[in-house]
Each structure stands twice: as structure tokens, then as C-alpha cells.
Design the sequence.
């Protein structure tokens, strides 16, 4: 019984230490992740915007999965409206 309490305390202390250690880098990690997702979105929709994409065969299958995030992406990229002629999201 006492061992379980000690293990639980060690686990809680480990989680707390991890949170304290990661706190200063949280914004940088989030920014890097967002930039990586933006690049991936550009890769997936590049063929529709007239940019040749050598992997279009594979990225075509991903477009329906990313359509929900497409509006947020083109707003974040500075495009007021959808850059695609045949797809209007806003």
C-alpha cells in the first residue's frame, strides 16, 4: 500500500517536472507544428493552385480529409478568399 503511494507521488512529481521544463518551449513547439502543417497543406492543395506536384497521386486522397481545415489555412496564409476557383469555402 505504501509503495503504491510512493509510486503515485513519483509519477505526479515527474509530470509536474515535465510541465515546468516544457513551459518555456511550448510556444516555439506550437509555432513549428503550425508551420509544418501549413507546408503539408500547401503540398496537398498545390496541384489545385497550379503548382506542379510530383506526389499528386498520393495527396489527392488526403484532400477530403483536410477540407475542414482549409478555410483556417488560407486565412492564416493571408488569402482573404479561397484561392481555388472551383472550391469556395467562404
Sequence:
Amino acid at each position: 500500500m505504501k509503495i503504491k503511494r510512493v509510486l503515485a507521488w513519483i509519477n505526479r512529481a515527474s509530470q509536474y517536472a515535465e510541465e515546468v521544463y516544457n513551459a518555456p518551449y511550448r510556444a516555439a513547439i506550437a509555432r513549428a507544428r503550425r508551420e509544418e502543417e501549413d507546408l503539408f497543406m500547401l503540398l496537398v492543395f498545390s496541384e489545385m493552385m497550379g503548382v506542379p506536384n510530383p506526389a499528386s497521386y498520393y495527396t489527392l486522397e488526403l484532400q477530403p480529409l483536410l477540407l475542414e481545415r482549409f478555410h483556417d489555412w488560407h486565412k492564416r496564409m493571408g488569402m482573404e478568399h479561397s484561392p481555388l476557383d472551383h472550391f469556395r469555402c467562404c
In short: The chain is about 65% helix and 0% strand.
